């Protein structure tokens, strides 16, 4: 499997085909395929939904956030807004990710460029290995959406800042499976 950076390059190579589909109302079957490799358009798997493909989006820590720094970082109201990347940065990654994940729905508004390890739990703000285009709608049989994950993130941050769970335990639980993170920590 290609490293994250090379998968993103492969997605960029496929982007003109995606643009042709959207601009001219063509179906994916009508879109030209980049000569690099026909599988390059879907270098990440949607089989893990509602989780990201761990080989494409493994989650990356922000080294500035540790158990010792939570009172001056994540537990400060508004702190995440000071490190959140611009939408021009995340929209570029979102477009690349939609191609890399091979989503048939290519509408940018149907996805949240999600921090797999959320900012409020010490996730890297800008590392592509921590960002992925999470569907805003349920894209699998679970019925779970990006707003469900947001709720889990908020509850975990509250538990960390209240001292109910450690930062490392919350990070591990959400990166293992956000759908079971609360129950695995005894918070649900």
Q: How would you briefly describe this protein structure?
A:
This protein has helices at 4-24, 79-83, 87-100, 146-161, 167-177, 181-184; strands at 111-115, 131-135.
Summarize this structure as a short list of keywords or feature phrases.
two-stranded antiparallel ribbon, 38% helix, 188 residues, 2 strands, mainly alpha
Question: What is the helix fraction of residues, given as a range?
Answer: 25-40%
> What's the overall average pLDDT, rounded?
84
- Poorly predicted segments: 5-39
Q: Strand arrangement, largest sheet? A: 1-2
Q: How many E-type strands?
A: 2
In DSSP terms (H or I, runs of 4 or more residues), the helix count works out at 6
Taken together, the total number of domains comes to 1
Percent of residues in β-strands: 5-15%
User: Structural class of the helices, strands and pairings?
Assistant: mainly alpha
- What's the story with the biggest beta sheet? 2 strands, antiparallel
Order of helix and strand elements from N to C terminus: HHHEEHHH
Radius of gyration: 17 Å
Shape by Cα distribution:
globular
- Cα(first) to Cα(last) distance is 36 Å
Describe the structure in your own words.
- This protein is mainly alpha-helical and 188 residues long.
- The chain has helices at residues 4-24, 79-83, 87-100, 146-161, 167-177, 181-184; strands at 111-115, 131-135.
- The chain has a two-stranded antiparallel ribbon.
- The protein has one domain (4-184).
- It is built from 6 helices and 2 strands, in the order αααββααα.
């Amino acid at each position: 499997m290609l490293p994250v950076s090379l998968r993103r390059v492969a997605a960029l190579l496929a982007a003109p085909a995606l643009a042709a589909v959207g601009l001219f109302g063509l179906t994916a079957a009508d879109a030209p395929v980049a000569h690099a490799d026909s599988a390059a358009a879907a270098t990440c798997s949607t089989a893990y939904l509602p989780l990201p493909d761990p080989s494409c989006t493994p989650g990356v820590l922000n080294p500035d956030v540790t158990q010792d720094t939570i009172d001056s970082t994540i537990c400060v109201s508004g702190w995440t807004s000071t490190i959140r990347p611009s939408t021009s940065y995340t929209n570029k990654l979102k477009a690349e990710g939609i191609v890399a994940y091979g989503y048939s729905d290519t509408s940018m508004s149907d996805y949240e460029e999600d921090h797999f390890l959320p900012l409020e739990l010490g996730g890297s703000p800008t590392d592509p290995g921590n960002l992925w285009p999470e569907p805003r709608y349920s894209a699998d049989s679970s019925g779970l959406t990006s707003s469900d994950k947001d709720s889990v993130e908020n509850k975990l941050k509250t538990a960390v800042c209240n001292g109910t769970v450690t930062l490392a335990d919350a990070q591990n639980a959400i990166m293992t499976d956000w759908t079971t993170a609360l129950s695995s920590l005894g918070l649900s």
